[in-house]
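Subgroup meeting minutes
Present: P.N., E.W., G.H.
Scribe: E.W.

1. P.N. recapped why we're keeping a running log of single-chain structure predictions: easier to compare across weeks, and new members can see raw inputs and outputs side by side.
2. G.H. added today's entry (266 aa).
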Amino acid sequence: METITKITKDKGQFYLVWLSSGEKLRVSEDTLVRQRLLKGQELTDTMIEQIKKAGSYDVGLQLSLNYLSYQLRSKKEILDHLKEKEILPEDRKKIVARLEEMNLLDDKSFSESYVRTLMRTSDKGPKMIEQQLKRKGLSDEDIQHGLTFYAMEDQVEVAAAAAQKAMKRYRTKSFREALQKVQIHLMQKGFNREVIDLALEGLAFERDEEQEIEAIKKEGDKLWEKHRKLDPYKRSMKVKQSLFQKQFDSELIQQYFDEKELEDEE
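Output recorded in log:
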């Protein structure tokens, strides 16, 4: 037999019922009124167990409603949140069912909303979004439903914006290497080959001769310094090989070495 020593207000609509053993029960206002819990009241083990069960469901439901108030959630996110908050397993399922009845939880609607949001606010392609939705516990059917709202023209537009941003990042590379890195970047973002080709075709990137000369000089000088301990022939071969691997034009590479020879003669 336990005695209620005090009842205090907790966060939100919750209360803490303190027992003579030192244990405290977190209950909702509804449970407090329904069970007619008062300071000094004696509780049997059976009554305490009933309060715990009632409190688990009520608290879990309120926690879920609060969690949903910020944004839509998937079923898995709700279940994970309730598990983290130590809500009883059987109550988690009941709460999810109740939220579905209230039309507050629907993975199909969640998928659609998630895809629409990311296509407006991020540079992610369908494949990456699909992976994220899988991690949120959505079925393949619900995922594909959401992805139908990410039309081809929208994908090309998002991919083109991502490509322009990436191209600026690689401006110190050779034009061909930069273009290759942009393509790889877009693939990693989750776009397919067709979308990538259309995006790059629309942007029509062009090689900037001055920028290319500046890039090879910067890269070449860095390599020249890196291999300074080698004999002149091996040093030249190492630098040439690296510049070819970085996809600089052979004529530009030769021009770089011609200028290097002139520097050495001075």
